[in-house]
Amino acid sequence: MAQMRAFFAGGRAPGVDARARAGIDRAAAVIADIARGDVPVYGVNTGFGKLASMRIAPDDTARLQRNLILSHCAGVGDPLPRAETALMMLLKVNSLARGASGVRWELIALLEAMLAHDIWPNVPEQGSVGASGDLAPLAHMAAVMIGEGQAWGAKVDGHPVSGSEALGNAGLDPIVLGPKEGLALINGTQFSTAVALGALFDLWHLVESQIAVAALSTDAIMGSTAPLRPEIHALRGHRGQIEVAAAMRGLLDGSEIRESHREGDTRVQDPYCIRCQAQVAGAALDQLRMAAHTLAIEANAVTDNPLVFEDASVISGGNFHAEPVAMAADQIAIAIAELGAIAQRRIALMVDPTLSFDLPPFLTPEPGLNSGLMIAEVTSAALMSENKHLANPCSTDSTPTSANQEDHVSMAAHGALRLRRMVDNLAHIVGIELLCAAQGVEFRAPLQTSAPLRELVKRLRTTVPPLGEDRMVSADIGRAAALCATGLDLCTLEMGESASL
């Protein structure tokens, strides 16, 4: 997982171990023998999907694979962003390198060269139902490899160019697909997996930021840290809950604001959005780790069809069905929605003078004349509600396709794509919470929050000044959201033990 995160963040693509070549060559030889023979094997010398019963002559196998790619380039919508496209390509390399797909080494080498030369295909985001693989998106990737389609690259400025031109600019030649190679390229879950992983990687920074912002909110409303005591969380035993509580205790340690109300506070218990922060964020954290584990396994999986085994048998199966990815995406979506829901309640708490423990209404020094952060809170509610709608599961949806041959599908691509919007919504919710929490803590002066949380406020104030007289706050929200999205480096959480590339 660490390798994939580093690559997604702009690092170099890890190369295929040379020791894998023997297995790759062995499987490719099996497929070449089948293509020359009379025994029908799906996708090698037959048609595809509902057309699997139609035999293809040996002389037409190359044409069959080319036609497969061109016919499946049926995607629509916005281009997949560069980082996700590159990750999709890397995952396809990783899958093919397992030596069970029957492709030649040259095919894998071309994908690696495209990554090394920063060539990324123009892949429309819409068109996959997440079963029989991510057919349309992966076909647009494969099209560039045969000199068709469109691509960007390091030597391409502005608009994408033809696949052949993008390859030529890097001194690369298009490949002529051999038996089964087109099918191996488009049969698989690499599009859905890459998109889900990209959202998870971006989300992880945001979760770490949110824990720090939640600690600042706790101080802003003079909340109790007693619910963070370790013995409470040890009795329950959930890893995420224990870690969130520990992180928040550390962030709040040394706060003058906290020490000022340990004695004589008439409130027996804080609202749940303060008292249950570790329980909710911890549960989300545990869900995200489970999803990360599933996606890491999928990133290392062989998900095309049919598969070539060491005994030279070629067996049709269903590893292309993206149900694990769809369910992981649903887990991530639910976690995002819940993190946003509890953050929004903390925002509402801070702007409400009946609940905020003596903070001014809507966190403005002159309420009435000024509305302060009134509508920023409304915006957070709108974003929270949108995320709750988007969190409805996609994996429970299905529709028959391909003349009922593919009669149950996962909708993994749809489930993964909505995560990017949800992460962006959550970033803005957390950004609004940061604006409120910083404003609230500053109203507690001369009492000071803890040293790390003072540093957090200081970083915010380099781009967003305190809110006095009313002003347009949309830009303030955007700056705060961007700060939170990149990670505040005040809380570091491990994504968990799982497989790596």
UniProtKB/TrEMBL annotation:
SUPFAM superfamilies with a match to the protein in the record: L-aspartase-like
Reactions catalysed: L-histidine = trans-urocanate + NH4(+)
Its EC number(s): 4.3.1.3
UniProt cross-references to InterPro entries, sorted A to Z: Aromatic_Lyase (IPR001106), Fumarase/histidase_N (IPR024083), HutH (IPR005921), L-Aspartase-like (IPR008948), Phe/His_NH3-lyase_AS (IPR022313)
Gene3D superfamilies in the cross-refs: Fumarase/aspartase (Central domain) (1.20.200.10), Fumarase/aspartase (N-terminal domain) (1.10.275.10)
Gene Ontology biological process terms from the UniProt entry: L-histidine catabolic process to glutamate and formamide; L-histidine catabolic process to glutamate and formate
Domain of life: Bacteria
UniProt subcellular location: Cytoplasm
Pfam families: Lyase_aromatic
One GO CC term on file: cytoplasm
A molecular-function term among this protein's GO annotations: histidine ammonia-lyase activity
Pathway linked to the protein: Amino-acid degradation; L-histidine degradation into L-glutamate; N-formimidoyl-L-glutamate from L-histidine: step 1/3
Top-level EC class: lyase
Primary localisation category: cytoplasm
Keyword Nucleotide-binding: no
Key words, A-Z: Histidine metabolism, Lyase
Lyase listed as a keyword: yes
Family named by the database record: Belongs to the PAL/histidase family.
Record protein name field: Histidine ammonia-lyase
